[in-house]
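Review box. Two proteins, two foldings.
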Amino acid sequence: MPLIRYQINDFGTPLAGSCSCGRELDRMDAAIGRLHDCFYGPDGTRHSGNVLGIHLTVGEDDVAVGQTQFIQKSLTHFLVRVTDTPEPTRETFNYLERRMKEIIGSGITVDFEVVARIPEEPSGKTRFVICEIPPPGRD
């Protein structure tokens, strides 16, 4: 399906070759993320929110991690919302903070908020990563 004049803020991987239907338009593999679902490291490097999803949604050593939402407040400050089911423990918070620092950088601070549920967007979807800062280097 051609995406003409749509700014949907998805990004994916270009595909080589033409479509089996015969169209000669550029093709794109399945979207791998949304532009607004990115976050930035302390050095300004942009990362896909998928990085956090891949590495943090399953705890290690029997650490229970419920539904989470990562909110970037500044280049070095993150707020992590964690649902109260399963009830998060000190080990849960330590695990998340340690892994985030390994992935993003040790120069970050992480605050936690325990919630009954992660708020939904007007679309009804729940965003996993919310970046509240403008892209570094752009004014």
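Next protein.
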Amino acid sequence: MDKNLLLFSLFFILILVPVRAQTNHIIDVSNDVFTPAKITITLGDTVTWKWVSGSHTTTSDSTSGPNSWDSPINSSHQTFSFVLTSLGLHRYYCRFHGGTDGSGMSGTITVVSPTVVTENTKFPTNYYLSQNYPNPFNPTTTIRYALPSSSFVTIKVYNSVGNEVATLVNEEEEEGYYNIVFDGNDLSSGVYYLQFKSNNFLRVKKMILLK
């Protein structure tokens, strides 16, 4: 095949078939609630339910689509992942604390095609701070948070007696989803507290460093 023709063909394929990195969306399972409970994802993405507290069995509503699952999420550090392979609305709930009608501990996943762009896929609608993962950790752990609008963000770490040991964020940030890694290599084992502030939103999470 002519070299120029080959290059043109490859260029044409790249234009028509863009490469998209698949995303893993994490849902915390804790305190009889899924956080976030409603998400919009792209076809082929993975959803991971991550245990934080309580004893729960996450299951699908088989009437909402061909995807179905039934997996216990009830022990420390346990996760359950599922790849969504059909478009549309998929409902899920805890068999013990929710129902197929959306009551109690339940949520929804809207799966869209890669060519669809919606506001829900781009920006969060609420402030959110996840529990760090893993927890306990040694020496690093990941922290996820979301901003529904541009705002000044302060994230600090305090030890068990209230002394500040680290400032992770202290600046204006745009709306969106964020992941940061906290490195406790210079700290001793113990209990630490992660404090998140943005506008009137304040959250504190307990972190355990075990070396």
